[in-house]
Amino acid sequence: MQTTHPASLEQTAASGVPDHGETSKASIRMELKHPLAIRWMHWVSFPVLFTMIWSGILIYWNNSDNLNQHPHRVYRVGIGKFTLFRFFPDWFYKLLHAPPHVTLGLSYHFFFMWIFALNGLAWVLYTWLSGEWRFIVPQRKSFREAIQVTLVDLHLRKGLPHQTKYNGAQRIAYTATALMGAMMLFTGVAIYKPTQMHWLTSLLGGYEMARWLHFWVTMGFLGFFIIHVLQVVLAGWNNFRSMVSGYEIQPVSAPSIEAERRRAK
Ligand code: HEM
Predict the structure, then answer these.
(1) If you take atom 17 of ligand 1, which residue's CA is the nearest one?
(2) Ligand 1 in reach of 229 Cβ (< 6 A)
(3) How far apart are CA 248 and CA 230, in angstroms?
(4) Confidence at residue 149, expressed as pLDDT on a 0 to 100 scale
(5) What is the full DSSP assignment across 130-181?
(6) Is the pLDDT confidence value at 77 over 90?
(7) Are 132 and 234 members of one domain?
């Protein structure tokens, strides 16, 4: 591999501009993978989601009797009368040192929900207006691709399918976060203002149902978060760094994200 200034690597490989021999043997290039706005909104979402889940746990504690009675009988995993796991067992609160502090939980929840909503809306709007949605919205082949990617991750198959910015599994997962975010907001508003927004609460199946959905979509976010961070660790430093600096180093033979952006314009 020839060592060259990153800018010239990018220019040579991504734009195809001839470089009179000096960098023509370069085997890597540096490309803008994540625009600045996406990186900002992405990193804002992490502490905000964390605070929403944390304060949600403080609120949930309020009327959960963790010793014997469990008024929230619906928040469990089980079949019929058999319960495998109840949300949440006593040890869980002890482990997290979560104090029974519903007012504190509500204050955080009602403040950070605005940032969660505005950040999520800004991401959807930016992604739509900038054309980045083309990399995120699932395509017809994404579902087949997602199965292939899962099989590769489980070491049951070799060779990832061809991709530019995101593979099918990522497209589905990232689009799901937008849908889950919308569901969080709708169910949240339905239980925040059940009188004023009674039509929304009714549409979602009533107060208890909206609350149940709010809880399970949170579990969905938690599931996404665990798998997402695990995949990021497995993908390695180059991929992680791209969400901080914006740029990723790629072999020149890899499909160019920038070229695809230009083609779409
Ligand atoms: C420690 C926490 C996190 C780390 C280390 C992390 C890391 C990353 C990285 C490296 C990417 C780029 C993947 C790639 O280029 O292949 C990415 C994309 C993404 N992450 Fe995270 N992430 C974290 C938390 C979150 C959270 C909390 C959410 C949302 C609930 C989230 C949602 C997303 C989405 C939607 C994308 C695609 C963004 C776009 O292209 O518009 N991430 N993340």
Answers:
(1) 243
(2) yes
(3) 19
(4) 92
(5) HSTHHHHS--TTHHHHHHHHHHHHTTSS-SPPP-SS--HHHHHHHHHHHHHH
(6) no
(7) yes
Distance CA 99, CA 50 (A): 16
pLDDT value at residue 13: 43
Q: What is the DSSP letter of 245?
A: H
Q: What is the CATH number of the domain that holds 184?
A: 1.20.950.20
Mark whether 173 and 215 lie in a shared domain: yes
Q: How many residues are given for the chain?
A: 265
Q: Are residues 134 and 259 in the same domain?
A: no
Closest Cα to atom 34 of ligand 1 = 174
Q: What is the CB neighbour count within 10 angstroms for residue 20?
A: 6
Domain count for the chain? 2
pTM of the shown model? 0.85
Work out which ligand 1 atom sits closest to the CA atom of 178. 35
2 pLDDT more than 50: no
Rounded-to-integer distance, Cα 245 and Cα 86, Å: 42
Q: What is the pLDDT of residues 130-159, one digit of tens each?
A: 999 999 999 999 999 999 999 998 999 988
Q: Do 26 and 87 fall into the same domain?
A: no
Q: For residue range 182-241, what is the model confidence (pLDDT) as tens digits?
A: 999 999 999 999 999 999 999 999 998 999 999 999 999 999 999 999 999 999 999 999
Distance 228 CA to ligand 1 centre (A): 7
Q: Are residues 119 and 238 in the same domain?
A: yes
Domain that holds residue 19: 1-33+246-265
